[in-house]
Amino acid sequence: MEATSKQSTFAIWISLISNILLTALKLIVGFLFGSQVLLADGVHNAGDVFASAAALIAMMISKRPPDKDHPYGHGKAEVIGAGMIAVILVLAAIYMGYHSVLALMGPPHTATLLVLITAAISLVWKQWLYIYTMRIGKKANSSGLIATAYDHLADVYASLAAVIGIALAMLGEHYNIQFLKYGDPVAGIIVAYFVLRLAIQMGRSSVDVLMEKNIDDERMDEILQLVQSIPEVKRIDRVRAREHGHYIIVDVRVGIPAELSVQEGHDISKKIKQVVMDQVPNVEEVLIHLNPWYKGE
After folding, report:
1. How far is CA 114 from the centre of its chain?
2. Nearest to residue 265, comparing CAs of 284, 285, 238, 293?
C-alpha cells in the first residue's frame, strides 16, 4: 500500500513538471509564430499546472489517517481535487473556444514547421503521461490521479487537433487553398468541445461521490452475495456502499438468530467484515448493525 502511495505521488509530480515545461514551450512558440490553437493549448496547459498542484495537495491530504474531526478519514480530499480539475478544464474550454472563434474572423496566421513539431511533441508526451497516470491511478484507486489522467487525455485531444489543424493550414498556404488556412482556429474549436465534454463528465463523477451515490451495481451484488454466504445471516435488511475518495465504506444491516449471545453476534460481525474486506477491492471500512431474527419469519 505504501509503495502504491509513493507511485501515485511520483506520478503527480511527473505530471506537474511536464505541464510546466509544456506550458512554457507552447506559449513561447505560439506567441512567436501567432498560432491560435497552440496559444489556446498553452493556456489550457497553464490551467493544468494548477490542476496538477491541486491534485498533489489533495492526494497528500487524503493519505492522512482518521482523526477526531474526520473519523472516516480524508479520502474525499481527492474528490474535491478532481472537481477543481473539472472546473479548470471548463474555463480552459471556454477560453479556447472564444479565442478560436475570434481568430476565424480575422486573417489567417502563417503556419510553420516549428509550430507543427511543438504540437507533435505535446501529443506524444501527453499520450505517454495519460497511459502512465491512468495505470497508477487505477492501481491505487485514486480519484485525483484518474482525474489527472483524464486531464492528460484532454491534452491529447487538443494536441491531435492542433497537429491536424496546423498541417492543414500549411497545406493551404502551400497550395493557396484559402479555407484550409483556417485549419488552426477550427482545430481550436474542436479541441474546446472535447475538453468541455470531458470536464462535464469528470465534474458529474465528483458530484456523485460527494453526494454519496451508491457504488456500481456489479460490486453491490458482489457484497450482497458475500454477506449472504455467512451461514448465521438469516436476513439482509440493508446494504449500502459509498466511495470515499480512494477507498469504499460499506454499511450492512442484517438479521441473525435472536437467541445468539452478544459474543456470538460480535464474532459474526467480524466474519462479515473480514470476508467483504478480503474479497472486494478498496474496501476500507465495513459498518455492521445486527437485528434479531426469529424462526418462522
Report:
1. 32
2. 293
